[in-house]
Amino acid sequence: MKQEVGHFLSTRKRIYKGGKRHGNWKGGRSVLKSGHVLIEAPGHPHADSRGRVLEHVFVAAKALKKDLPERAVVHHHDGDPGNNDPTNLVVCEDQRYHMLLHKRQTAYRATGNPNAERCAYCRAWMLPDNPEFYRYVSPDQQDAREAWKRKTTVLAWHKGCRREYDNSRKEWRH
Ligand SMILES: [Zn+2]
Ligand SMILES: [Zn+2]
Fold it and tell me: What Cα–Cα distance (Å) separates residue 167 from each residue in 80, 90, 136, 139?
């Protein structure tokens, strides 16, 4: 999983000592309802008006040794928003990539294969090498890459499920 998606900040296991090792950490640490952690770091480029910054943003920027790219989203690999060990953080280029990562993680947990996708019709998991696997691309998005760029969803179907769906749509029109 690790090497396949996203960019881990560190693959070395480190002993994480909370905020204490952060450069301009001032001692305050509060956990939000969402489970994310705010720390006090006045002067940090992402600090709010009270000089607080999300710990995962702080840790990620520090590990990258530069500010995060503008649309970047920091992902928690183990799903725990309070685990801000650098080994648990993945910087995603944008929210769309972040969602792809979640989709692949869900697929991996459900089937053991991050490439598995759910049929848009029957919701069953299937792998792209399944002979029944069918990728629906509408005529105006023949190029999957173009569709990706235009942020349209390219759904996976069983061939049989797609036929059933198309037939049911024809019936509606009568
Ligand atoms: Zn995430
Ligand atoms: Zn299906």
Answer: 44, 43, 15, 18
Q: Could you tell me the CA-to-CA distances from 14 to 17, 45, 47, 59, 84 in Å, in that order?
A: 9, 26, 26, 13, 12
User: Relative to the alpha carbon of 101, which ligand is closest?
Assistant: 1
Q: Which ligand lies nearest to the CA atom of residue 120 in the structure? A: 2
Total domain count, the chain = 2
Ligand nearest to the Cα of 160, by number:
2
> Measured in angstroms, how far is the CA atom of residue 73 from the centroid of ligand 2?
32
**pLDDT band at 36, cuts 50/70/90?**
very high
82 and 136 share one domain: no
Q: Which amino acid is at 97?
A: Y
For ligand 1, an ion, list residues with CB under 5 A: 75
User: What spacing in Å lies between the alpha carbon of 156 and ligand 2's midpoint?
Assistant: 9
Ligand nearest to the CA of 125: 2
Look up residue 171 and give its two tokens.
Answer: 């019936």
Residue 71 forms part of a structural domain: yes
Task: Look at residue 104 and tell me if it is in a domain.
Answer: no
Task: Give the ligand whose atoms come closest to the C-alpha of residue 103.
Answer: 1
State whether 90 and 121 are in the same domain: no
In this structure, is residue 111 part of a structural domain? Answer: no
The model's pLDDT over 63-103, given as tens digits with 9 standing for 90+, comes to 988 888 889 999 999 999 999 999 999 999 998 889 889 99
Range of the domain at 54: 7-95
Residue at 82 is within a domain: yes
